[in-house]
Backbone:
């Protein structure tokens, strides 16, 4: 069960407000100079204990979020990239592609196992590593041979030797039915 950060911060604020209201209701702030030393020590001990627990809870949530951010920073960021487009001679529109690459925009992915399936055919591919901005060509051929759906299942290890898996799907049939046009993605260094 995952507790949201907003819920933790809301609980911390509510706890502080409740302590303040109870202390005000009991008239603790007005009668502090009239209290004996043991009573005062006990009161401050309880307030400090509750405050410490709330701060520890908030610090724990912040540490967990920092860990998520760090793990995201060292994770490979994989994507599919169609390339070498087919053009309609009459309209100039892109009608498909003849090459499909697996691209990594994050840190190095190691022991990369790629299962590529299309039109009832599957290919089991392997790359020892895919570095930052590297491309692995996973398919080339005629666009019409791809059928209705492309699915790619990628299993790999990150730099901390943690096994990860990502699945990609391109539903070509829904693209055709919606009459969407393919658009090339330009790399700024190649666009000049």
Residues:
């Amino acid at each position: 069960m995952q507790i949201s950060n907003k819920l933790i911060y809301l609980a911390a604020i509510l706890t502080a407000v409740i302590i303040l209201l109870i202390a005000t209701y009991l008239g603790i702030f007005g009668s502090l100079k009239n209290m004996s030393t043991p009573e005062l020590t006990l009161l401050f001990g309880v307030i400090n204990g509750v405050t410490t627990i709330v701060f520890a809870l908030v610090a724990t949530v912040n540490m967990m979020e920092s860990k998520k951010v760090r793990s995201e920073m060292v994770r490979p960021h994989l994507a599919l990239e169609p390339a070498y487009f087919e053009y309609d001679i009459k309209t100039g529109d892109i009608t498909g592609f003849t090459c499909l690459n697996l691209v990594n925009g994050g840190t190095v992915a190691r022991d990369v196992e790629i299962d590529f399936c299309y039109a009832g055919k599957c290919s089991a591919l392997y790359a020892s590593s895919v570095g930052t901005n590297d491309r692995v060509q996973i398919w080339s051929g005629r666009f019409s041979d791809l059928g209705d759906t492309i699915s790619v299942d990628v299993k790999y290890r990150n730099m901390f030797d943690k096994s990860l898996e990502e699945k990609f799907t391109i539903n070509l049939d829904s693209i055709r039915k919606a009459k969407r046009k393919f658009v090339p993605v330009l790399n700024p260094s190649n666009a000049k």
